[in-house]
Amino acid sequence: MRTTTPRRLPAALAAACALALTATACGSSDGESAGASAKDVRAALKKGGTVTVWTWEPTLKKAAADFEKKYPGVNVKLVNAGTGDKQYTALQNAMSAGSGAPDVAQIEYYALGQFALGKSVEDLAAYGAEKYGDSFSKGPWSAVRHGKAISALPMDSGPMALFYNKKVFDKHHIDVPRTWDEYVEAARKLHKADPDTYITADTGDAGTTTSLIWQAGGRPYRTKGTEVNVGFDDAGTRTYAKTWQRLLDKDLVSPVTTWTDDWYKGLGDGSIATLTMGAWMPANFTSNVKSAAGDWRVAPLPQWKKGDSASAENGGSSLAIPKAAKNKQLAYAFLQYAATGQGATSRIDSGAFPATRKHLESAAFLETKFPYFGGQKANKVFAESARRVGADWSYLPYQVYANSVFKDTVGKAYVSDTPLSKGFAAWEKKSVDHGKDQGFTVNE
Question: Can you list the pairs that 185-189 forms with residues at least 24 positions away whose Cβ atoms lie under 8 Å?
Fold first, then answer.
């Protein structure tokens, strides 16, 4: 599974919510939810009914089937309403109209803030979700917390790792880089040894960029209600930009766009030797890079400072209950099952990467061997990465828009002589201007 980088929403949810600053502007008219007690949830399960779930994630199919088997009176209707901006636009429209919204919606972590700010999703703290605080790893749990509110339950996570082609590294006698300086040197050696081989492919991706800034200690975004800070002049961003500029200046990254046929071909034939990605990536290797089975391995992310062990999240999504949902108690029952119960286990068995600590720490999970990675117990690397994720990261409440203009700002550094520093300055300006246009108080 992977997340997409959406384009701008045609009528951003953040706009209406930031300007109106009321719950009724972006949700149902009942204001703050009264939630549901465990007794209410049991009664809803006994009564039965239909739970409509908007999702693109395939592992929910097994969880839904098992849930229906356990509760014969319940029908779980899975609807693929699209990914990224397509689903979020449809979801926003249904919420604004007060009809047609699902009972449960899958929302990526970076996009959740705008729905939370608009109070268009239920605060699950009113349902007792606070008890799950110690059940999830800190990255995903932090992503669903907005102030005192719990906007969703984590569905999966994406602690980052370095995927590298061991066959290529061994051929050219190059050690796996432990720092980003060593990574740049490995890139130089690889490309010198074979001009058709690159350390990685990168034409500019907002998600990967912000994740590596996160790992470097950068915190370009700060959000408190409708007051946001945007600033790409912090030490973490400068560290990332300086290192990546070295790769771009020497043409050491392949000009191939990720998630394309050419990219998969490069991963398969060894011309793209590494990638930094979330722990959900193995399924993409086994499905789309079959020819390189056995060649690849997994290692911890290189560090910005020798001796450190920092990591970050990349991707992942949550399950939320829209305020406009018709069957909230039954929806919450399904959320608990799919995110923390037996449904979570079945989803992990089907390939999802866990956000739950009990699964991350289980012997069965940690000892799993990956035939694709030469029998490596890769989950040990991923689980350690999850424990090393830096705290206090936050996205903008209009991150969907911010990501959509990345290509037009920072992205220019990959296709022209524009330095990354100027690209970040342009990205900051567009993000600040948009926030002010939407009624946010924006500090630089």
Answer: 187/247, 187/250, 187/252, 187/253, 188/250, 188/252
In a domain, 345, yes or no: yes
Distance CA 325, CA 73 (A): 19
CB atoms within 10 A of CB 282: 21
Beta-sheet strands, E only, within 300-415: 317-320
**Dist. CA 338–CA 97, nearest whole Å:** 28
Give the pLDDT mean for 406-415: 95
Among the ranges given (23-37, 41-55, 84-98, 386-400), the one the predictor scored with the smallest mean pLDDT: 23-37
Considering only CA atoms, which of 372, 430, 440 is closest in space to residue 401? 430
Dihedrals phi, psi of 389, to nearest 5 degrees: -65, 130
pLDDT of residue 34: 54
**Token pair 């930009």 is at which residue?**
241
Place of tokens 């117990």: 377
pLDDT digits (tens, 9 = 90+) for 108-125: 999 999 899 888 999 999
**116 plus 201 within the same structural domain:** no
Determine the Cα–Cα distance for residues 424 and 247; give it in Å rounded to an integer: 17
**Listed residue (12, 20, 23) closest to 98, CA to CA:** 23
Do residues 259 and 319 share a domain? no
Q: Is residue 40 part of a domain?
A: yes
* pLDDT range class, residue 351, cuts 50, 70, 90: confident
- CATH at 336: 3.40.190.10
Neighbours of 389 (CB within 10 A): 23
Q: Are residues 267 and 337 in the same domain?
A: no
Q: Which domain holds residue 204?
A: 160-312+392-443
Considering the domain boundaries, does residue 3 fall inside one? no
Backbone angles phi, psi at 335, to 5 degrees: -55, -50
Alpha carbon separation from 132 to 125, 155, 367 (Å, rounded): 10, 13, 25
Residue 136 lies in a domain: yes
Crossing angle of helices 13-20 and 85-97, rounded to 10°: 40
